[in-house]
Structure formats: C-alpha cells, structure tokens
Amino acid sequence: QVQLVQSGAEVKKPGASVKVSCKVSGYTLTELSMHWVRQAPGKGLEWMGGFDPEDGETIYAQKFQGRVTMTEDTSTDTAYMELSSLRSEDTAVYYCATGEVGSGFDYWGQGTLVTVSS
Amino acid sequence: SYELTQPPSVSVSPGQTARITCSGDALPKQYAYWYQQKPGQAPVLVIYKDSERPSGIPERFSGSSSGTTVTLTISGVQAEDEADYYCQSADSSGTYGVFGGGTKLTVL
After folding, report:
1. Concatenated DSSP letters of B39-63
2. Distance (Å, rounded) from C-alpha B69 to C-alpha B26?
3. Are A103 and B48 inside 8 Å of each other by CB?
4. At CB < 8 Å, which residues of chain A contact B?
5. Of chain B residues 79-98, which have a CB less than 8 A from chain A?
6. pLDDT band at B82 (very low <50, low <70, confident <90, very high)
7. How far apart are CA B20 and CA B83, in angstroms?
8. Which of A87, A105, B45, B96 has the fewest Cβ atoms surrounding its Cβ within 10 A?
9. Which sign, positive or negative, has the C-alpha torsion B60, B34, B86, B58?
10. What mean pLDDT comes out for the span B40-58?
11. Which are the contacts of B25, defined by CB distance < 8 A and separation ≥ 6?
C-alpha cells in the first residue's frame, strides 16, 4: 500500500517561490510515477505535470512551463514541486498523486495549502 | 488546450440512479478515470479505464463510454455518495493530463 505524506501549509508573498514535498512509503519512488495536481479554493482539480515513464521525462502543463520544477530524491523517496513567481491566483491546495495521465491517479497525498498574500 | 466538459451539478433522491457525463474529443482514443472528492479530503479513484472499479469501491459505481462521452453511473444512490465528481483523461497524444470541471452530486 502506497502512502504519500506531504509537507505542511505555507504562506508566501507575491513573487516568492514555494517548494512542497511528498514523502513516499510502502514503495520506493523509483517504482512510481509522481504527478502534481492543484485545487484553488472552491474550484476544480488542475493537473500541473508529472513523470512520463515512456519518455523518462517530467512533463509540465503548458500553463506552468517555466514556472514549475518537479524533482525527486530517490535516497529519501521524496518528491518535490517548486513553483516560482507566485501570485495570488496560485493560492490553492497542492496534491501529489501516483499514476500516469493515461492510467489514472490511484494514490494521493493529503494536500498542502499554499497561500499567496501580501 | 484540451478540455473535458461535465455538468456543474446533478441532484437525485436516495435510492435513485445518478448519471454524470463527461465529454471530450479525445475520449474515443484515451481512457477516462473518475474521482470522488468529499469536502476537505483528497480525491479518491472510483472508476479506471472507463468502466473498471478499484477494489473497495462499492458495486453501485459503474462507468461506460460511447464515442466522445463517458458516463459515471451510481445506482441506488446513498447519502454518503454526496460529493464532487471529476473525470480525468489525457490529450490525444497521451502526454498531457486534463480534468473535467467537476460535478457536484446532491442527494436530496
């Protein structure tokens, strides 16, 4: 059974960056493909990007390209999502989830609230 | 960019059947997935590959596909099924993920 435990809530000022972590247990990170999904308050789910095992590359949604970086530390089985140049519209709960865009997302972290406010 | 379209809301009485649709041009080529999300909780996968049910998901949840539309059906709706439901798929290239806008299911 995969368990994903995310880092705690963050408050950031506009223009800053945030880095959210997602610790994997039950499996090793190398056995999984990790993706990130966000949800603004009262809004729907939005796919941000994730690892494509067919290409061996991380794919980012066009909306976030240039502003998001997803990395992994296989020594600690922890995935990271860093979003830069934050603006108020980035206020959202950010989820990590395992799976693939063409196979669905079967395990989810508990979510991390990122608030962007001056 | 590619979009999936869902109705914003569906309402049914307990014991009735709820049907939630999701439309997208690439759905004949790409599988669809359905997630249930209750307030303050992470989404839960309830249907994968259009019509398969993960272990632990009640049999009253089913999925179907026809052309550019997929449908989540909940038979014998219970009060605990009240939640937001999201479809998810990939674009025609299979590279980029996309979610529908979500459907709020209200059990009257």
Report:
1. TTS--EEEEBTTTB--TTS-TTEEE
2. 10
3. yes
4. 35, 37, 44-47, 50, 52, 59, 61-63, 95, 97, 101-106, 108-111
5. 84, 86, 88-90, 94-98
6. very high
7. 12
8. A87
9. positive
10. 97
11. B2, B68, B92
Chain position carrying tokens 């090793």: A28
Question: Sign of the C-alpha dihedral, residues B70, B48, A32, A20?
Answer: positive
Q: How many CB pairs (< 8 A) connect A and B? A: 67
The answer to whether residues A49 and A95 touch, using CB atoms and an 8 Å cutoff, is no
Per-residue pLDDT tens over the stretch A13-72:
999 999 999 999 999 999 999 999 999 999 999 999 999 988 899 999 999 999 999 999
- CA atoms of B13 and B15, how far apart (whole Å): 6
Bridge partners, A46 (sequence order): A38
C-alpha–C-alpha distance, residues A118 and A38, integer Å: 21
Q: Report the distance separating Cα B11 and Cα A34, nearest Å.
A: 34
Closest residue by Cα to residue A14 from A75, A76, A70, A90: A90
d(CA A3, CA B98): 24
Residue found by looking up tokens 């990122």 in the block: A114
Question: Do residues A61 and A49 lie in contact, with contact meaning Cβ atoms separated by under 8 Å?
Answer: yes
Mean pLDDT confidence for B69-88 = 98
